[in-house]
Amino acid sequence: MDHFSVDSMIALDFPKVSVEREISKVYEEFGHTSAYVYVVDKDGLLVGLLDQSAMIQAGTDENLQKPAGELMCKAPKCLASGSTLEEAVSYFSAHQITEVPVIDEAGRMIGLLKVWPLLDYQASKLKMIDSELNESKRLTATLEAVIENPYEGLVVVDENSRVIIINNFYLEAIGITREQALGRHIRELTPHSELPDIVRTGKAQFVDYWKVRDRDFMIIRAPIKRDGKTIGAMGKTLFKDMGLAHVFARKLAQMENDLKFYKEELRKIHSATYTFEDIVGEDIKMTSTIYLAKRVARASSTVLLTGESGTGKELFAHAIHNDGARRYSPFIKVNCAAIPEQLLESELFGYAEGAFTGACKGGKPGKFELANHGTIFLDEIGDMSLTMQAKLLRVIQEREIERVGGTQTFKIDVRIITATNRKLDIMVQEGMFREDLFYRLNVIVLELPCLRERPSDIRLLANYMLTKLKQKLETGVKGISQESMQLLQNYSWPGNVRELESVLEQVMNIVDEPFILPEHLPARIPHSKTAAEETQSMEKGRFEEGVKCAEKELLVDALKRSKGNKSQAAKILGIHRSVMYKKLRKHGLGGMTLSQEY
Ligand SMILES: Nc1ncnc2c1ncn2[C@@H]1O[C@H](COP(=O)(O)OP(=O)(O)OP(=O)(O)O)[C@@H](O)[C@H]1O
């Protein structure tokens, strides 16, 4: 006989559908990888091989057309007519036989489907069942350990609120045995249980208080659902006892505190620290600048602060912001000289997501965005490149920004305060600063006087800083000798107030004596006397200074204790009122009020 395929089976009145169905059943049963089906013709010759894609590859296999006597040797007669493949497979597998006859409608066997290797399949199926069993045993053991953990109570009820799982912790808490609990309605065990409500509503209750037999617990209750339907509920204690709950609550409170602290720190970073109260100065140049600054603080106009380094430009920027309507909004400082040119643009205007390699997801807001509704303080504006000046000009004119690499523009409402110690007008002439930007920034100009122009403020500032440093450094230094003060006033202070601050801090760190004397001052502050004169007068001067300072300190102390009452202060010191007044005049304390610092 010729080779035959599914089509040739049709020619033999064997319906194609039926063959395909039978074949697919074999595959379904044995899996595509574990079974092969051979088709043998009625003369016992192998005529087809069904591979994994269920094709009859007639004529393509070298085994085709070979006698299949040995394959058929086990074919039972009882199956020779009309059994379905399913019946055949189950019969064969029970008898460890791996062949199925193909029969025609008259019940004649026209071929044979040989299923191979059925035995391997059975063995692997058994192995699989065995490993599934082991896995589920392992899982059950783990679940039991979880359920029986000694730190938490657990009870599970079914859809009728009957207990199906309960752990020892829970049993112990309510004081009954497992046998007494299983299968009972939960309210028979704990009359006020809310689990039936959870089963009814299907809604969880997160964290509730549960008191049982004089013990307090925190508990959560949750529904158990399958295919969206509530099939039970579980109650679980959260802590072994309330002691642990309190530990947890304390930790939570600590974390909340920390969070508050960091939020406050962040707020401080984005807010102005100083106010006009922190600006010390009595010199007319200074007081008129403060007066003007206070006036401009109320408006939103752009301010340009000029003056030598260390004259207090940043201090003024803070004070102006803090005195105006924007005081509760951010104060953002940008040091234009400290940020590399290529980063300044994204620092000021932010960048969009994917603007460059390494850009943060979601992009990053720039300082202008952060300062929205508040103030941006652009320090060292004179150090900004011409390219950046053009970009800044656009923002000032349009009052809108676009993130680097972005397409959207944002409207911004920001007050701009700039500062520089460079001469912007000269820079404009030299082509180093854009003229149009200069006029945009030069709306209100506050020129801060340098320290050498206001020597009277040196004494004031030095005493003010001494008081602050005494607290900070906890030193025994009580004051500055008159002679030292004179030297400080004679000095030119190129670094202005910042330099004065650092000289005092440096001196107070090394001086062990109560008063800062000329020899304690750094060498760059010129001493008016020659070294010989100094040595001579030093001993005398030191004693006199000491006495003078001590006397002054006693006077100040007595006045403080008498709350400014001079007669009372005289009594405290045991001196006559007239002597008291004389000494007060000598030390310049005649008009002393309590708020003054000496
Ligand atoms: N009038 C003042 N009263 C009290 N402290 C002052 C005064 N002026 C300046 N200071 C202090 O001096 C230091 C320098 O001030 P600030 O940084 O404001 O100066 P600046 O002009 O901005 O300096 P730069 O140009 O170098 O940035 C700060 O510690 C500041 O608190």
Give your account of this protein's structure.
The protein has 598 residues and is of the alpha/beta class. The chain folds into 4 domains: 111 residues, no CATH class; 91 residues, PAS domain (Beta-Lactamase), CATH 3.30.450; 174 residues, P-loop containing nucleotide triphosphate hydrolases (Rossmann fold); 119 residues, Helicase, Ruva Protein, domain 3 (Orthogonal Bundle). 45% of the residues lie in helices and 17% in strands. It has 23 helices and 20 strands. The strands form 6 sheets. Strands 6-5-9-8-7 form a 5-stranded antiparallel beta sheet, covered by helices on one side. It has a 5-stranded parallel beta sheet with strand order 11-14-17-10-18. Strands 2-1-4-3 form a 4-stranded antiparallel beta sheet. β7 and β8 form a beta hairpin. It is elongated and about 120 Å long. The N and C termini lie far apart (126 Å). Adenosine-5'-triphosphate binds next to α12 and α20.
End-to-end Cα distance, whole Å, is 126 Å
Largest sheet, spatial ordering of strands = 6-5-9-8-7
The number of distinct helices, counting runs of at least 4 residues, comes to 23
Fourth CATH level, the homologous superfamily of the largest domain: P-loop containing nucleotide triphosphate hydrolases
In the CATH hierarchy, the architecture of the largest domain is 3-Layer(aba) Sandwich
Number of DSSP strands? 20
Global Rg? 48 Å
Strand content: 15-25%
User: CATH topology of the largest domain, anyone?
Assistant: Rossmann fold
Instruction: Give the tally of structural domains.
Output: 4
Protein name: PAS domain S-box
Coiled coil: 245-272
Domain CBS: 72-128
Domain Sigma-54 factor interaction: 279-509
